[in-house]
Design brief:
75% helix; 240 residues; mainly alpha; globular; 12 helices
Length: 240
């Protein structure tokens, strides 16, 4: 499994595309956080990374499918999937190896953003940032990245076209992240059902963890979504 994980890491950074994707992710976050006037924390008058944690999921929504779109689609297209199946690996080990490799890349992309928290803390005259909320938000971002990774690998397992894998992955991620929120706002669900529909979405649980309280219900939700999509991927590989 760890051999697959290492292969996924090396494959992503074997081309310039991988480096460009990470640079664009960090550049966009930096511009929105410190340069653009409507979202710049320098104009808030208080130390907060709220705008970053509100924006980062939307950028991850495109970054993660970029990372995962080649996971299995490229294996099918290049004909290396047949070679992969001759190795002493079960479909489960292949899927989880792919997942851990892609997730490691996502975490690598998030690590440099800690500089933002350090910078805001140093720039603060009094009080500083909410440490508990910031830690909770980073945990939420990692879990969100893990869910998007599982979804991206799953969509990549259904096609040998990386562009289709990217579009499908981004669409499903968007649907699960924001779709239930939008659906719950329909007038027909205003009698109390809207809250329970909103709970089905990823955004609800991400916001909950971002408050700094890691609730077991949120963890179970994220783990459940990850396991579900990786199970679907595993079943798809077994059929092939």
């Amino acid at each position: 499994m760890w051999m697959i994980c290492k292969k996924e890491w090396q494959q992503f950074f074997s081309s310039l595309t991988g480096y460009i994707a990470l640079v664009v992710f960090l550049l966009l976050n930096g511009l929105f956080l410190f340069v653009f006037p409507d979202t710049s924390i320098l104009d808030f008058g208080y130390a907060s990374l709220g705008s970053f944690f509100n924006l980062a999921p939307w950028i991850l929504l495109f970054l993660v499918p970029t990372i995962t779109m080649r996971s299995l689609a490229d294996e099918y297209r290049a004909g290396t999937f047949e070679l992969l199946k001759t190795m002493p690996l079960t479909p489960s080990q292949i899927v989880w190896g792919k997942f851990y490799g892609a997730l490691l890349i996502v975490i690598t992309a998030l690590l440099p953003t800690i500089i933002y928290a350090i910078s805001v803390q140093q720039l603060s005259v009094t009080g500083g940032i909410d440490i508990g909320g910031t830690i909770g938000s980073y945990i939420g971002l990692i879990l969100l990245g893990a869910v998007f990774t599982a979804i991206g690998i799953c969509t990549s397992s259904f096609t040998n076209n990386t562009v289709v894998a990217f579009i499908a992955g981004a669409f499903v991620c968007f649907l699960l992240y924001n779709g239930f929120d939008a659906f719950s706002k329909l007038p027909v669900f205003k009698a109390g059902l809207d809250y329970y529909i909103e709970m089905l979405g990823i955004n609800f649980h991400y916001r909950s963890i971002s408050r700094g309280v890691v609730d077991s219900r949120d963890l179970i939700y994220f783990i459940g979504i990850i396991v579900l999509f990786l199970f679907i991927t595993q079943r798809n590989l077994s059929k092939r």
